[in-house]
Structure formats: C-alpha cells, structure tokens
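Quarterly update from the structural biology core.
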Amino acid sequence: MIQKSLYFAGRLSVEIHETQIAPPGPGQVLVQTLYSAISAGSEQIVYRGLAPQDIPIDEDIPSLKGSFAFPMKYGYSAVGKVISIGKDTPAEWESRLVFSFHPHESHFLADTSALLPLPQSISPEDALFLPNMETALSFLMDGRPMVGEQVVVFGQGIVGLLTTALLAMYPLTSLITLDKHTLRREYSLRAGAHASIDPGEIDLIPTFLSSSNSREGSQGADLVYELTGSPPALDQAIAVTGFNGRLVIGSWYGKQPVSLNLGGRFHRNRIRLISSQVSTINPLFLGRWNKSRRLGVAWKLIEKIQPARYITQRFPFSDAAKAYEFLDRHTEESIQIIFTY
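Predicted structure, tokenized:
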C-alpha cells in the first residue's frame, strides 16, 4: 500500500512523498486518514522557517520524533479509520474511528496505545479539535479564572476562540477579546465574548473594565491571555493587566525575538507572567490530574461546543501546498483549515 506523507521541505515549501507502507505488526493497526487539521499557529512558524532547531519537535509524542530541521514531518491532529490490524491486536479495533496526535499522512501504522477511539457522540470533523481544546483547557487550568473577574484574551485564532468559548461558561464581569481580523472578531462574539476589538483600538479596553480593583487608582484586567503568536502583543497584554493580575502566555514565538518594556507598570503592579504549555500538567494539579483525565474533559467540551463550525476551508491532501500558501497569504480569511483524504 502507498503511504503519502507531507514534508516541510524548506522555508515556504511543502512536498508530498510516496512510500510503501508495511502491514501492521503485533499490537499495531493500520489507519487510513479521513481528515487532518492544520495548526495555524505552530505550523505557520514551521512553514516560515521560524521554528528553533535546537529543541525536539515533541518529547512525548512518538510520531513527532526528531528536530525542526528541514525536511521534516509535522502536524498533530489526524482522524482516521482502522483498516487492518496486526497479530495479537484485539478484534474490537477493526474498523474503529480513531484520533491520533500524528503528522499529515494518508495512512499510518500505530500502536493501539497511541490512538484514542472517537466517542460515538462526536463527529470525525469535531474530533480534529481535540488538541486545541485540550490546549484551551490547559490555559484555563493555568490561569484559574474566578467568578466575577475581568478577563482579556489577545488573539482569536482557533485556540483563542476555544479559550473564549470556555471562559464564556464562567460568570465573569467582563470578557474582552482582541484580534486584528474582522472575521475572527465576529466569531469571537458568537463564542461568548462581551466585546471584541481591533488591537489598534486597545485604548478602548478601559471603557469595558470596571475600576473596582482592590488597590485604589488601579484599573486593569484580573486575568489576561496572550495567544496571538506575535511578540509585540505581549507588551500590549502587560499594559492592560491590573495590579497583581495574571498574564498567561500561551503563544509559541519560535525564533522570533521578544522585546519587553518591564520598567513601568509591570514592575509596580506585581504582574505575574505564567508560561503555559499543553505537553505537561500544571504541577498544582498533579495530585489529581493526568493526561487521560484532561483529554476526557476535552472530549466532553468538544461535544458541548461542536467546534467543526469553525472550519473555514477544506483542501484535498493533494493540494497541501496551496493550503499552506493560502494560510500564509490570507490569514484574515481563515480560522481553521483541514485536509480531506
């Protein structure tokens, strides 16, 4: 059987390579991919050659071994159907719909331990959002929003939108989002934001925030998320964070340099910068939480939110180069791009 794999061949270049794929071995299955999702933030960084090459792609996902040096396979959201099982593999895996943190490929071999069966209540397209929903959930676990707080979210790409949708479930005093693209601001309001504004109008944020901070004369958000992937947004995020506020940095900047002004409000306002990364569980929760529990909650949130409505473009896998070119040149028209196989 022919396996078609997407490779990031160099800066602004992707290729599809064809190879023969072996039959599944003991304990393995062969999966035929139905859909895979492009992670706009991290895959744009890889596509543009901005990924740091001195760190592993992922230390916990076997299918993402190696470094960010070209050529490389990347991607971590694939949904497919098991079409063949190996010796000693339980028969219930035959024909099962599964999710895998796997690069973009038409077929792939996997140990059953690396696969997540789809719940019957979740469609294959909705299931593609599992990694991003888990990421949004980890942002909430790291930020720990409280009832009545004022929250600001920078960036309304798909992870930002899902974070906004989860925050909207809380009885917050205000939930304000920012994004430079009109389409994303429209989706943000539908997701539950009280207001969504252009970052160029950041001076409007105080009009949406009350001045009921416990420190007299201090105004600003209790909790801020920086999810744009753009280093200049971090200074803006600091500027709107109130006294003793929390700023969760969920962006991955890759090799982009970050220059911050920490001599003014940041120093005097005791702002806390929190690094958030989905590969691990916040140590505060390790006594009761593990990866499996968090994924289980993410599945339930997907069933509730049904995020397939955020898919804006579908490209045949054979047109992968066109998909990345579109994402690079027309970001303002895209929220979530998926491949069909």
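The first strand starts at residue 2 and ends at 10.
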